[in-house]
Amino acid sequence: MTRILTYNILVGGARRIDQITDMIRAAQPDVVGLVEATNPRVVTELAERLNMDYRMSGEAAHPMDWHIALLSRLPIVESHAHSRPGALSKPLLEVTVQEEDGQELTLFVTHLKAAFRNFRGGDAVRQREVREILRLMEAKQGTPHALMGDFNSIAPGDRLKGSRLLRYLVLQDEYRKRQPQESIGNPYLDFVVPPSLRFLDPLLRAIPRSSFLSALFDEAGSLYAARGSMRLLRRAGYVDSFRFTNPRAWGFTCPAKAPAGRIDYILASPELASRLTDCYVLTEGNGTYGYSASDHLPVVAEFGARVATHLDAPQLVADAAT
Question: Which residue among 28, 55, 192, 279 has its CA within the 20 to 30 Å range from the CA of 218?
Answer without folding.
Answer: 279
